[in-house]
Amino acid sequence: MPAAGTKILEFFQTPMGEEIMEGSLGGLMAGIPLFWQDNDPGSAALQTATAMLGGIGLGMAGRRVGAAIGKAIKPGELENQQSMLANMARIGGSEGTTMDATMDFIQGQRAIIGDQIRGGMVEKVRVDAKTMNPTEFQAKHGISVDEFEQFDRINSKLGGEAMDASAQAQQKFAEMMEEAIAEAAARGEAPEIALDLGAGLAGGIARTSKEKPLAPVTGEEVGRVIGRFIGDEVGILGGSALGAYAATQMGFETPKDREIRRLKEELQALQ
């Protein structure tokens, strides 16, 4: 039976839990300074609560609305799949969690690096070797076709071996972590939530040791990440403003408001 802490951790690793955490943290960051300003504690608490609720609610809605708008504007893939916008959309605009998307992104970057190490940087030269006659090729690149093909085979082999060695070392480290966690669990030396966190970290290390092609980014992912950001910000600001209005209607007063009211009453009494 999972511990309560483990259940909470698992919930916050879902898209809904992630949005609740983002909205709550954003609302807290916006509301906590109000307690140190000239505000009634009740008013500050109310504004903080409504900012949190606004961030959660509009953050969730922003994901859905943004994705729909982005899909309508750009239903196909982005032209530049390696741009900053595309990479932001891969991580923050997926249907899953940011953590899963980050893991996929790391695997994709590893695949790109692997392709380059295995000889992807000379792809244009390979094309020339197939399409140009030997004399033209040697004049352009300074080596013969046979020399290049020999270099290409060796480079590809060494690059593949280097990437395999790196993956094996990373996988071995993850296995050592898993063994240490299992031993700690058997001895009862750590709380269950700490063991779960350690197991998750070991799993992440093992997962990112593998290569995986990056999924293409469409307008839907771009719209989702933009809607997510705007929804959080508008929700937090709007929620805080609504809380301030509600506090006024409920009669919360700052020390300054009370002093002004006292002075007005004294002036009225003198008249």
* Count of DSSP strands: 0
Largest sheet report: none
Which ranges are low-confidence, i.e. pLDDT below 50, for 5 or more consecutive residues?
Answer: none
Instruction: List the helices and strands in order.
Output: HHHHHHHHHHH
Number of H- or I-type helical stretches: 11
Structure description:
With 271 residues, this protein is mostly helical. It folds into 2 domains: 130 residues, no CATH class; 112 residues, no CATH class. Helix content is 77%, strand content 0%. α3 runs antiparallel to α10 and α8 packs antiparallel against α9. The longest helix is centred in the middle third of the chain and has 43 residues. It starts with a helix and ends with a helix. The mean pLDDT is 86.
What is the structure about, briefly put?
It contains eleven helices and no strands. It is mostly helical and 271 residues long.
Could you give the topology of this structure?
Elements: H1 4-11, H2 15-31, H3 41-73, H4 84-92, H5 98-117, H6 123-131, H7 134-141, H8 145-187, H9 192-207, H10 219-249, H11 255-270
Keywords:
single chain, 271 residues, mainly alpha, 2 domains, 11 helices
